[in-house]
Amino acid sequence: MRESKYVSVHNKQLSRELLLKILDNSYDAIFATDSTGITIYANKACEQYYGIRPSDMIGKDPWQFMEQAGCYPPTAPITLHSKARNTLEQSTRTGAKMVVTNTPIYDQNGNIEFLVQNCRDVKQLADIKRDFEQTKELLARMEEEVVVLSKKELQNVKLVAHSAQMKELMTLVEKVAPVDINILILGETGTGKSALAKNIHRISSRQNGPFISINCAAIPEELMESELFGYMGGAFTGALQKGKTGLIELADGGTLFLDEIAELPPRLQGKILDVIQERRFIPIGGHQVKTVDCRIISATNRNMNTMIERGLFREDLYYRLNVIELELRPLRERPEDTLALIYYFLNKFHKKYKKDHSISPECRDILLDYSWPGNIRELENMIERLVVVVEDSTIEVCHLPKIFSEAFSKSIQFPATEKPQVRTLDEAICQLERRMIVEALHKYGSSRKVAHALHISQSKAYRLIEKYCNNKLF
């Protein structure tokens, strides 16, 4: 029967040419010798380490090869004599120090049919080991830096509390933070729920542990379980071979912050409940139960009672999370905090961008009157924008985006465009004066510019603005 030109490996046919290509692209030098020590194969890497071409090595016995390649000692005779795999060190004419592993291949009678010799440069092994150790040291330093930066970030968390509501809330926080109890934070988007959670962790008994935050609304539902609970290697298609540690396990000894908890998929609510009650879980694809000790702080901007009534959130989980409830009121309901936050963010971004501005009274009052639907996050972004964009030393009304002018114009009751219904000349003059002042302030933004446009003194412009613009100077 004619011999096939293919070799079967794991039910796949590899041609002789392909096998030779694989061997020739090996990083290590590979030899094969027959049962007498005669070289019958050498790959291309052999030339780099031994200084002679593979074709010149074929047919040489160990002693001839030793003389031609300048290597010592010859390793094949030692293996042929011991009839067992062994590893020896060998020097070559190129100055390389090789680690040579000889593996005997036996025939059906138990006799050595040939040897496979795998050779690697000791220096390269040392370099790899050194690089590996340096990488480990670098990773260790990076982990230390991450921990330091994380702690620094927590230390830099600033909660502005000038209003009565916030002062009352912070008094409650100082009472419950040291107690290892679950907390649910309620509030509109941008009110500072994440900052409050970090502050609770910072003054809690777990302050030296990790603070792990996850936004349940930002992760696709199909990935949420693996992110929270982790998985074992090969648990599903696309999984990392070594597996992955979940965020719950990473929070062991510290705090797990579940932001937007109302968006947690119903099928995972039961697993989170088990973690809270039993302090244990099983990673995806695993069989071993893992224990975890972490405090859970959750937050949401949704009405949880409505979600429970609609069957979208488990009532038992809600009561486990909501042992203590903290509510952050929207910014529009606490103007005292708005004023403090304006100057807090102004100073923050002055330091960041090396700038220096003041805010005109007119601009300040417009910022205070604005409803801030995006709350603290919107205010912070606005102040940062003004600090970066405004080149003048004073931030004026004219520097504010159009949305503020529109909000301002809606808050002022402009006179009707049709003919005024007046009974006296004085009433008509008063309405005209009011209209001109309001429209001028809306257009120019400051008492100084209004005075210049209407050719009156700034003190008079100031008085008229106070008189006609809701008794407030913008």
From TrEMBL:
GO terms for molecular function: ATP binding; DNA binding. SUPFAM superfamilies: Homeodomain-like (SSF46689), P-loop containing nucleoside triphosphate hydrolases (SSF52540), PYP-like sensor domain (PAS domain) (SSF55785). CDD domains: AAA, PAS. Pfam families: AAA_lid_14, HTH_50, PAS_9, Sigma54_activat. Residues 15-60 form the PAS domain. NCBIfam families: sensory_box. This is HTH-type transcriptional regulatory protein TyrR. It comes from Sporomusa termitida.
